[in-house]
Design brief:
The chain is mainly α. The protein contains three helices and no strands.
């Protein structure tokens, strides 16, 4: 069962992932086009983390992983990266 609150929660939980992933890669670099290039390069890693987290829930009896959760977390990671940029 999918709900809006579940989607919002998944987006919110991944915002720090994207923010800190891009921050770790770019904190000591000058601002500019490199931010966008790094975000494009690192976003698949954030999506992979989301997919692995959802896959890990397959083995928990009370959790119900879905593809929509992965997409919401991917959106959250992108918003976090946008926040850093």
């Amino acid at each position: 069962v999918y709900s809006r609150s579940d989607g919002v929660g998944n987006v919110a939980v991944a915002v720090p992932l994207g923010f800190f992933l891009l921050a770790a890669a770019r904190v000591d670099r000058p601002r500019g086009v490199g931010e966008l290039a790094a975000a494009v390069a690192l976003w698949p890693a954030a999506v992979a983390v989301a997919a692995l987290a959802e896959f890990g829930q397959v083995f928990l009896p009370t959790r119900h992983p879905t593809g929509a959760d992965i997409w919401c977390q991917a959106l959250g990671a992108a918003l976090g990266m946008l926040g850093w940029a």
